[in-house]
Amino acid sequence: MLVAGLSGWCLRPSAAPLASAAPLASAAASRPASGRSFGVTAWLPYWEMPSALLTTVANANVIQTASPYWYDIAGDARVHEEAGAGSAATIAQLAAHHERILPMVTEQAGMAEFAAILAEPSRRAALVRTLVALASHPGYAGLDIDFESFAYDPGHRSALAARIASAYPRLIAQTCRALHAIGRLCEVAVMARTSDARGYDHGDIPSWVYDYRALAAAADRVQIMAYDDHSPGGPAGPIAPLPWVRRVIAYARSTAPAGRFELGIPAYGYDWHGRTSASAVYADQLAALAASVHARPRWDPRQGEVTFRYRVGRVRHTVWVVTAAADAARARLALAAGFAGVAVWAAGYGMPQLWAELRPAALAGR
Predict the structure, then answer these.
(1) Which residues neighbour 258 within 8 Å (Cβ) at sequence distance 6 or greater?
(2) At residue 13, does pLDDT exceed 60?
């Protein structure tokens, strides 16, 4: 879920319509050592919180970790709380259903500002203190660090991106050590990569600023956002095509033990109109949309997604959506690869049957 400004990837409102308080075990003991255990994380967007919360607690037998999107940091110390951040009622409901709560934290710094923070020890230390202070809430089990704004580089300043690629893992390592010291977990979300190549995705996104090897060595888990291979601002196409997801998984496994990773899977799609304009379609809206335009969705077996086309006046529309069955297919890939689990973007978007599809027994075909 990319932050605002990056082609609308995050499905925020501005885009087109996208733990218990008991003492924790040591963070080191919670680090997944192999792919034997397979967990499910749900990200909870603040703009869909009632639905996201209801979905998460109703499926607590499947979802082990809840990551509400609650905090955004400007610079190294200014914290913006999103709507409902730290809600005692939300925390109590999640804790009552034995959900581990790792709120998601994003940042606003662009590439140049973020590089300056990373390069200055005092500012880097201030950012670590800010993160630790957020994680210190007695109801939180740790943090889900989803820093993405710095990975937008329309100027293609590759030397600056390279400095960030080297320095960002040091920030994460410093943060994770500090979180572990207070008994909290440390997870980091990254954009999808398929190789070590230093190219630019979607024209302006240097996804190689995320060094999987170094980040996996520092964090308890690395969550790979394996979606938006096609997104608003570009041509229509599958959101998380299976051949591409396989390459993402293979690359991750080449960098670190597979059990260090979670595969991010999408519960949404897009309705393109024109060459690059698109509106988000949650998976649970697919049937209603198709019925309203008298379209018949079809399953694309190669891409592993549902697609259809329709026309409104002279405007042609192309729709691609990741359904519950599609997400289950991606989860089986992650399970077979030895990943620690999957992370769903987002609770409240998916079809009701999604969560049953993600049960271990269902993924194993039992």
Answers:
(1) 34, 35, 252, 337, 338, 339, 340
(2) no
